[in-house]
């Protein structure tokens, strides 16, 4: 079984490939692509694979743009940290919708479904999947240690999640900073994407924190956040347009 992985995060693509070797040892990843542009180019110039795994948010846009430009007949399994694209996913040949971090059992279920793929998916099956995705609850509070005490911080009071010297921290509306036991990759699927946005590998910011935004070099944007002494809180260049779209909802 020939497989294509559309994923702009190298670690996530490699993780999925490793899971595939365990769950579907007869599969072969023939291409790992990071952008809409690369996906369109590959599918236009190569034999169609048996299965596509596609993240939704790629380096230069949403993967749906690929399938709007290139007609594919093979099944597509979408992989993403967000569930609000579920309905759009099934307007293509999407047969399943895996929320990150991807678990081995769910991947196995999706592959079994791909084996029985038919372009004429039954509407009830689509709705059952999308409804289960929409029921996802985001984290509402974080427990932090303050001296010998444990304190509960409501998520709406958190302006920023960030990494500093390999440790993770939150910074609150009260301008207080606390250490937490989560990596940013773990935090992303826990947070409401309508409220929080990962601007780069070190920072996830809330909409409340985006009040002082400056133009920066190479078409990037820089955020100034009171209470955080870091002049380099910069939106990664490949995320700038998506960030602007997020702000403009």
Descriptive key words:
249 residues, alpha/beta, Rossmann fold, OB fold (Dihydrolipoamide Acetyltransferase, E2P), five-stranded parallel β-sheet, five-stranded antiparallel β-sheet, 17 strands, 28% helix, globular
For this structure, the CATH topology of the largest domain is Rossmann fold
CATH class of the largest domain: Alpha Beta
> What is the SS-derived class?
alpha/beta
Q: List low-confidence stretches.
A: 119-135
Task: Write up this protein.
The chain has 249 residues and is of the alpha/beta class. It has helices at residues 10-23, 36-45, 64-69, 86-89, 104-115, 123-134, 184-187, 240-247; strands spanning 2-6, 28-33, 51-55, 57-58, 61-62, 76-80, 94-99, 141-146, 149-154, 158-164, 167-172, 177-180, 196-198, 203-206, 213-215, 221-223, 234-235. It has a five-stranded parallel beta sheet with strand order 2-1-3-6-7. A five-stranded antiparallel beta sheet has the order 12-11-10-14-13, with no helix packed on it. The longest helix is centred in the N-terminal third of the chain and has 14 residues, at 10-23. 27% of the residues are buried. The model is unreliable at 119-135 (pLDDT under 50).
